[in-house]
Amino acid sequence: MIQLYHGDGKGKTTAAVGICVRARGHNIPVVFAQFLKDGSSGEIKMLKQIGVKVMLPDTFFGFVRSMSEEQLQKTKEDYAGFLNDIEREVYSRIRDNDSSASDENKQAVYCVLVLDEVVHACNNGLVNEKEMLAFLGRIKHKTEVILTGRNPSADIENAADYCTSFQKEKHPFDLGVTARIGVEL
């Protein structure tokens, strides 16, 4: 199944991390792939410690709005290969877990995959949305997929089995408070 966490509110990635922790508690393999982030947030270290396969792209240039055309193109090229790497990793995890699973649980989840900020990457043309949706169609039968980001397209929303909107009502950032270590990053 596909879960979509979207909106302008805080907590999308945090909710996805919670699913990762829950899945690992049941010995389900987890792949956590981040787009448009540098991997320095606090949850990355902890996810690795509990056996989550964390995947980060080779390039990171900061906020999309600050990237040059050359940086945008390099990121787009990197992300095309990154999506292929993610697919190979997920198939490997499914294959390994499928061989050890019993037939008793027809609803078994063989792998959890988080594509953190993939919606934002699609919105900015850095990930080809049609290719990403085709990829999801290939893996969603035994993989629980969590997509995060703002302003998903109608096609992404339609592909989702779960759709949760995070709405900001109030945020310290609006008052000039920057992200705090251990809370926002």
Provide structural commentary:
This protein is α/β, with parallel strands linked by helices and 185 residues long. The protein has six helices and six strands. The protein has helices at 12-25, 42-49, 69-98, 118-123, 129-139, 154-159; strands at 2-6, 30-34, 53-55, 111-116, 143-149, 162-165. The chain has a six-stranded parallel sheet with strand order 3-2-4-5-1-6, sandwiched between helices. Strand 2 (30-34), helix 2 (42-49) and strand 3 form a beta-alpha-beta unit. The radius of gyration is 16 Å and the shape is globular. The model has no long low-confidence stretch (mean pLDDT 91).
Outline the low-pLDDT stretches.
Answer: none
Strand content: 15-25%
What is the CATH T-level topology?
A: Rossmann fold
State the helix count. 6
Strand order of the largest sheet: 3-2-4-5-1-6
Give the mean pLDDT.
Answer: 91
